[in-house]
Amino acid sequence: MAGKGALNISELLTKKEKEILDEWVKAQADNLASRRGLIPEKQQREDSARLLGVLVKAVAGGNLEDITAPEYDGVNRFLASLAASRANQGFSPSETATYIFSLKNIVFKFLQEEYSDRPEALLKAAIDFSALVDKLGLITFETYVKGREEVIREQQKSMLELSTPVIQIWDEILVSPLIGTIDSARARQIMENLLESIVATKSSIVIMDITGVPAVDTEVANRLLRTMQAAKLMGAECILTGIGPQISQTIVHLGVDLGGVITRASLRDGLTLAFKRLKLNVARAEG
Amino acid sequence: MAVIKRDKDLKFIRIEEGHHVDMARRAAIEYARMMGFGEVQTAFMATSVSELAKNILVHAGSGTVIFRILSVGEKRGLEIVFADRGPGIDDLARVLRGGYSTSSTLGIGLSGSGRMMDELEIKTEPGKGTTIWIRKWL
Known about the structure:
CATH superfamily of chain B: Histidine kinase-like ATPase, C-terminal domain
Order of helices and strands of chain A: HHHHHHHEEHEHEHEH
Number of domains of chain B: 1
Shape of chain A: rod-shaped
Number of helices of chain A: 11
Number of helices of chain B: 4
CATH topology of chain B: Heat Shock Protein 90
Largest sheet of chain A: 5 strands, mixed
Helix content of chain B: 25-40%
Distance between the termini of chain A: 99 Å
Shape of chain B: globular
Structural class of chain A: alpha/beta
CATH class of the largest domain in chain A: Mainly Alpha
Largest sheet of chain B: 5 strands, antiparallel
Radius of gyration of chain B: 14 Å
Radius of gyration of chain A: 33 Å
Oligomer: heterodimer
Largest interface: A-B, 19 and 22 residues
Structural class of chain B: alpha+beta
Number of domains of chain A: 2
């Protein structure tokens, strides 16, 4: 409980919950977001009532500081769901946070009415409550950011799946067109896909095309070399294609040794070589 | 002796995760093209940035890459600085010769970058960190 002389905010909130809610909802009605009609007034009132309800419960023990304490679980849960639903309804994260912050003005008014005779205690109470509401507003912001991060992670995963295809373009010939940067996760996936495909299709030639790889540095070169080595151990011959003038000079200056690797400038040249190795003849039909 | 003037800082990039390296590499390409470097020189710079920014990530965990425009008299150039507070480089001479690595890679990133750039300068102190300047002149 609050010490002697200090104002009891939790008591005030409990006592005046209904009035505070009414005032708050009224203030929101004049607010920009509700004017835009993004949210029905009824839901606005329900949200506010629930938030105030869980908040009153949380502060009942006098804790206005540590919002990670168990009594704030309800508040945290509600704010997370509020942030998510508001984001779905098209609110920006700052609009949602501003909505939470708007509770301050209302509660300040009630504090003032109640304790106008004790200015010093009033100031302290206002500062404490303000700090608490700030924290709550930031939770909605963080939830929003976390949601975004999750979307980005999912997109990255999708891109990873998309970008490592292995295609059988002829009997015994596989092509792996590499597109984008090759980090360790992708390199692993490329290697796995390739080795599995070699077994599944009984291929003897693998063409790895790096036309779509933006930069070949020593790490990328090293990973390509290892993949080709592994393929070789499984009895497949590797042809590295798509080495343009910039990449070839970069590799030379870096000092990467591609001595044991068959390379061709284009995928077309690589395919021609593969056909030759398999003693296949591509000719235009007569007539 | 000609004095190198730092004309303009273009960008600071914090290196903390893998995709920051990609950001730095793309920035290198953007600035190199903006300044009028040819495609091969641009590729050299992009690859050097990729190497050295990855080194920050692998050895120091985090650091900063700074891009800036330099001039000496009429001559203009691009300088890229890689700074970290990592463990420093113990045997600098050996690392610069190439083929030596403490992290199961090829160990030629730093020496290769030196060959691709016009200038490469290193200040390193064990336990305190490493700063590398690379420059290319138009």
